[in-house]
Amino acid sequence: MGAAFYRGAEACILVFDITSQESFDNLNSWKTNFLEKCMPRDPQNFPFFVFGNKKDLEADRQVSSNQVREWCRQQRGIPFQETSAIDCECIENAFDGITQTLLNKTIEQKTQI
Protein backbone atom coordinates (compact mmCIF):
# COMPACT_ATOMS: atom_id res chain seq x y z
CA MET A 1 0.00 0.00 0.00
CA GLY A 2 1.10 3.52 -0.65
CA ALA A 3 2.27 6.04 1.91
CA ALA A 4 -0.97 8.04 1.60
CA PHE A 5 -2.88 5.11 3.11
CA TYR A 6 -0.78 5.31 6.29
CA ARG A 7 -0.69 9.10 6.62
CA GLY A 8 -2.34 10.39 9.79
CA ALA A 9 -2.51 7.01 11.49
CA GLU A 10 -2.77 7.22 15.27
CA ALA A 11 -1.78 3.58 15.90
CA CYS A 12 -0.86 0.37 14.12
CA ILE A 13 -2.16 -3.14 14.76
CA LEU A 14 0.18 -5.91 13.65
CA VAL A 15 -1.72 -9.18 13.25
CA PHE A 16 -0.05 -12.54 12.83
CA ASP A 17 -1.34 -16.11 12.72
CA ILE A 18 -0.38 -18.18 15.79
CA THR A 19 -0.42 -21.28 13.56
CA SER A 20 2.26 -19.85 11.25
CA GLN A 21 5.84 -19.19 12.35
CA GLU A 22 6.41 -17.40 9.04
CA SER A 23 3.58 -15.00 9.83
CA PHE A 24 5.15 -14.17 13.20
CA ASP A 25 8.59 -13.79 11.60
CA ASN A 26 7.16 -11.04 9.37
CA LEU A 27 6.31 -8.74 12.30
CA ASN A 28 9.65 -6.93 12.10
CA SER A 29 9.32 -6.16 8.40
CA TRP A 30 5.66 -5.13 8.76
CA LYS A 31 6.54 -2.75 11.59
CA THR A 32 9.46 -1.27 9.66
CA ASN A 33 7.38 -0.91 6.51
CA PHE A 34 4.65 0.88 8.43
CA LEU A 35 7.08 3.34 10.04
CA GLU A 36 8.73 4.08 6.68
CA LYS A 37 5.40 4.87 5.04
CA CYS A 38 3.65 6.55 7.96
CA MET A 39 6.65 8.70 8.95
CA PRO A 40 5.35 9.52 12.46
CA ARG A 41 6.93 12.44 14.32
CA ASP A 42 8.08 10.17 17.15
CA PRO A 43 8.59 6.66 15.74
CA GLN A 44 10.13 5.39 19.00
CA ASN A 45 6.89 6.08 20.87
CA PHE A 46 4.35 5.37 18.14
CA PRO A 47 1.62 3.07 19.52
CA PHE A 48 1.77 -0.44 18.11
CA PHE A 49 -0.38 -3.38 19.14
CA VAL A 50 0.13 -7.06 18.32
CA PHE A 51 -2.73 -9.50 17.85
CA GLY A 52 -1.99 -13.20 17.63
CA ASN A 53 -5.00 -14.41 15.66
CA LYS A 54 -6.52 -17.89 15.32
CA LYS A 55 -6.62 -18.56 19.04
CA ASP A 56 -9.38 -21.04 18.21
CA LEU A 57 -6.75 -23.26 16.52
CA GLU A 58 -4.64 -23.85 19.63
CA ALA A 59 -3.88 -27.44 18.58
CA ASP A 60 -2.11 -26.12 15.46
CA ARG A 61 -0.08 -23.45 17.29
CA GLN A 62 3.44 -22.84 15.97
CA VAL A 63 4.19 -19.62 17.86
CA SER A 64 4.24 -19.68 21.66
CA SER A 65 2.81 -16.84 23.72
CA ASN A 66 6.20 -16.53 25.44
CA GLN A 67 7.93 -16.06 22.09
CA VAL A 68 5.55 -13.24 21.18
CA ARG A 69 5.78 -11.60 24.60
CA GLU A 70 9.57 -11.58 24.34
CA TRP A 71 9.43 -9.96 20.89
CA CYS A 72 6.96 -7.36 22.20
CA ARG A 73 9.21 -6.67 25.20
CA GLN A 74 12.17 -6.11 22.88
CA GLN A 75 10.04 -3.68 20.88
CA ARG A 76 9.59 -1.34 23.84
CA GLY A 77 6.69 -3.18 25.42
CA ILE A 78 4.17 -3.44 22.60
CA PRO A 79 0.87 -4.73 24.01
CA PHE A 80 -0.05 -8.26 22.91
CA GLN A 81 -3.42 -10.00 22.81
CA GLU A 82 -4.41 -13.38 21.42
CA THR A 83 -7.64 -13.29 19.44
CA SER A 84 -9.94 -15.36 17.27
CA ALA A 85 -11.73 -13.71 14.37
CA ILE A 86 -13.84 -16.84 13.91
CA ASP A 87 -15.44 -16.87 17.35
CA CYS A 88 -14.68 -13.20 18.22
CA GLU A 89 -12.75 -14.26 21.31
CA CYS A 90 -10.92 -11.34 22.91
CA ILE A 91 -11.57 -9.01 19.95
CA GLU A 92 -13.61 -6.55 22.00
CA ASN A 93 -11.07 -6.57 24.85
CA ALA A 94 -8.23 -5.98 22.39
CA PHE A 95 -9.92 -2.95 20.82
CA ASP A 96 -10.95 -1.63 24.23
CA GLY A 97 -7.26 -1.72 25.20
CA ILE A 98 -6.28 0.18 22.06
CA THR A 99 -8.96 2.78 22.69
CA GLN A 100 -7.86 3.28 26.29
CA THR A 101 -4.21 3.61 25.27
CA LEU A 102 -5.01 6.22 22.63
CA LEU A 103 -7.28 8.17 25.00
CA ASN A 104 -4.54 8.22 27.64
CA LYS A 105 -2.04 9.40 25.02
CA THR A 106 -4.38 12.23 23.96
CA ILE A 107 -4.95 13.31 27.56
CA GLU A 108 -1.20 13.23 28.21
CA GLN A 109 -0.50 15.36 25.13
CA LYS A 110 -3.10 17.93 26.14
CA THR A 111 -1.68 18.29 29.64
CA GLN A 112 1.77 18.94 28.19
CA ILE A 113 0.55 21.98 26.24
What would a concise description of this structure say?
With 113 residues, the chain is an alpha/beta fold. The chain has helices at residues 3-6, 21-25, 27-38, 65-74, 91-112; strands at residues 12-17, 48-53, 80-82.
Describe the structure.
This protein is α/β, with parallel strands linked by helices and 113 residues long. It has a single domain (3-105), classed as Rossmann fold. It is built from five helices and three strands. The chain has a three-stranded parallel β-sheet with strand order 1-2-3. α4 links the parallel β2 (48-53) and β3 (80-82). The chain is globular, with a radius of gyration of 15 Å.
Secondary structure topology:
Elements: H1 3-6, E1 12-17, H2 21-25, H3 27-38, E2 48-53, H4 65-74, E3 80-82, H5 91-112
Parallel strand pairs: 1-2, 2-3
Features:
3-stranded parallel beta sheet; about 110 residues; alpha/beta; globular; Rossmann fold
Q: What is the CATH superfamily classification?
A: P-loop containing nucleotide triphosphate hydrolases
> Percent range for helical residues?
40-55%
Residue stretches low in confidence (pLDDT < 50, at least 5 long) are none
Structural class: alpha/beta
At CATH level 2, the architecture is 3-Layer(aba) Sandwich
Order of helices and strands: HEHHEHEH
Q: Using the coordinates shown, work out and report the CATH topology.
A: Rossmann fold
The helix tally amounts to: 5
Approximate strand percentage: 5-15%
C-alpha geometry: globular
The strand line-up of the biggest sheet is: 1-2-3
Alpha-carbon distance between the termini?
A: 34 Å
Major beta sheet summary: 3 strands, parallel
CATH class: Alpha Beta
Task: Please state the CA-atom Rg, rounded to the nearest Å.
Answer: 15 Å
Overall tally of domains: 1
Number of DSSP-assigned strands:
3
Mean of all residue-level pLDDT scores:
89
